[in-house]
Protein: Ca2+:H+ antiporter
Organism: Crossiella cryophila
Amino acid sequence: MNPPTDTAPDTSAALPRWSLIVPPLALVLLVASWGRGLNAVLLILVCAGLAGGVIAAVHHAEVVAHRVGEPFGTLILAIAVTVIEVALIVTLMSSGGPDSASLARDTVFAAIMITCNGIVGVALLAGSLRHRVQEFRAHASGGALAVTLALVTVCLVLPTFTISSAGPTFTGPQLAFAGVASLVMYAVFVFVQTKRHRDYFLPKGDCTPDEHAPAPTARTAWLSLALLVLCLVSVVGLAKTVSPALESAVESAGAPRSLVGLLIALLVLLPETVAAVRAALRDRLQTSLNLALGSALASIGLTIPAIALASIWLTGPLVLGLGAKEMVLLALTGVVSTLTIVSGRATVLQGAVHLMVFSAFVFLAVTP
């Protein structure tokens, strides 16, 4: 593709009007609500601004992704979503006190279950209902799954069994090792996905007309990148503003505190779910799996190092170890995902199984 010239069309004309309006509105809401108590009207506006900021952030990440192409596109989406997730976790932990010690664990585990079961399941189901049988590259998705399961085991399972510190926690050196290992393995995966074996992660078959849509100009991509940063700043600030109300609502409902982590993960991954389903409906299941498994891997590979670094100034313990129920669900997810990926083909049955596991996770999160 030739680089854009000075005669390229106006950048704003290439972006939907709502995507230009939402980021500054979210910033205005942040300024108006910062440091104030939230009444009912302001709380609704802040929640709407938070959701709009997340959706706009992912939209602008998609614009930048279209500019750079696959598999860089799914990588940018995964990193953007993970930045939002990490920002929300750190923000809520810094303002939540000792009661938020397990928030990082709950959010990362919820993200793994949502991506590996929820997003994969709904993409498989939607795509298979339209195309009956869908094919994908098992060696690419299998590699992503292997790295994800290995890091989840090291970061979220082993703390339950270590004995150097009280409770399901890591000592400082253990947490440092987990953070470095996560970051290194994520970097290796990105190198394989974007350089060494980039062709493994490209969709199989010919492109549909949607894939031939003109890429945005460089100026449009830069504008989207700037709006993406603005969205991230607004999301972090609005999350800090709304966090007391969110935690109070969970406590008032008598639900476990782990539900807060589930709500955060659902919020940041909803737009990516839509993108994965749209790809599956276009018979691009490999793109859907890249989105789902890439987000799962980014969630564990980037969140744990960030939380490990943030723990230097965060007070209180950092609970990472999963309970017995969560480990059973994780093991079931690993087995089901392996059986789904090993054949390189998917039908409605695989989608239904993943959604059943996801439904069990949600149900047990609400009624433990």
Notes: Residues 21 and 56 are 9 Å apart (CA to CA).
